[in-house]
Write a structure and sequence with these properties.
With about 300 residues, the chain is an alpha/beta fold. The protein is about 50% helix and about 15% strand. It has an eight-stranded parallel barrel with strand order 1-2-3-4-5-6-7-8, surrounded by seven helices. The chain starts with a helix and ends with a helix.
């Protein structure tokens, strides 16, 4: 399968240099990442929300090796919140953060990540919005969930992400669905061993539906991160069975993928949130988008072949 190969490449400095130097790379990357600066992304936010969509914003960059870089990541989100403030969008524009960017992998990283992310969550709450903690590889999840629980004591709308391909996730979903939290479910985009994660696509899809059912029947707010038409249809049916109204769950899709579907769902009255990443350290994010779906890789390769 190509997915694991691409995920391995996402950690390769040699591949990073090769892909970054390719002339075709930047226009293709722009399909998924619409800007490198907050000045570039704010008009994107305004355009999406004007079309009835909502957004979650991710400042890309995960390979943090110093406390100074972790503090800079915190400050980048605080700058974003400052720029969002006069727009008055409230929860139409939230943020997604990876705790690795806030120093989670450094010495004393759990406490450091919590200390760095807290002012971001506090600032988001002050302008009427919130933050979702993205899931990363399985070794980071106990720390992420502990930080999520701690933050929710003061900021109960803080969200988190669970990944369907992990064996542990059904138990995590039961725990989270019982206490009213906001939970995004995704299939998963990290290279995980067979000892902790399903490897077969059909098994991952089945797990996704089981977990989605738990969330829909629970007391939390499900956020469905998928572009799969079958899972979108399943979501609508499970929501109907659970008696949920359209504003009691939401769909989330990536910027640049199935944009027509974004608008279709919003036009039907669904909450549709577009995961919009920006920043200069785009390589890891971009490679995972290629790994998630063969069509994304084919799009990239075709662009390289046809580019003059």
């Amino acid at each position: 399968m190509l997915g694991p190969v691409i995920l391995a490449a996402s950690r390769s400095d040699k591949m990073r240099r090769l892909v970054s130097a390719a002339p075709v790379t930047k226009p293709v990357v722009n399909r998924f990442i619409p800007g490198e600066t907050v000045d570039q992304v704010i008009p994107i936010v305004q355009g999406l929300t004007a079309n009835g969509l909502e957004v979650t914003l991710d400042v890309v960059g995960e390979d943090i090796t110093t406390r100074e870089q972790a503090a800079a990541a915190r400050d980048a989100y605080l700058e974003l919140i400052e720029r969002l403030t006069p727009l008055g969008l409230g929860t139409k524009a939230e943020m997604s953060v990876k705790l690795s960017m806030f120093g989670q992998s450094l010495e004393g990283g759990h406490e450091l990540a919590l200390a760095n992310v807290r002012p971001v969550v506090e600032a988001a709450a002050a302008i009427g919005t919130t933050v979702t903690l993205d899931a990363e590889d399985h070794t980071t999840l106990d720390s992420m969930f502990a930080i999520h629980e701690e933050l929710r004591k003061d900021f109960p709308k803080t969200g988190c992400v669970i990944q369907a391909y992990l064996f542990r996730t059904e138990d995590d979903a039961r725990r989270l669905a019982a206490n009213g939290s906001r939970v995004r479910i995704v299939k998963g985009a990290y290279k995980e061993p067979a000892s902790v994660a399903y490897q077969d696509k059909a098994e991952i899809d089945k797990a996704y539906v089981r977990i989605l059912k738990i969330l829909m029947e629970g007391e939390g707010y499900p956020m469905i991160g998928s572009h799969d038409p079958r899972l979108i249809a399943v979501t609508q049916e499970l929501a109907r069975r659970a008696g949920r109204k359209m504003d009691e769950y939401e769909f989330q899709m990536l910027y640049g993928i199935r944009s027509d579907e974004h608008l279709r769902l919003a036009a039907e009255g669904h909450r549709m949130r577009v995961y919009t990443a920006y920043g200069t350290d785009w390589y890891g994010y971009f490679m995972r988008r290629l790994a998630e779906k063969p069509a994304n890789l084919l799009f990239f390769v075709r662009s390289m072949i046809t580019k003059n």
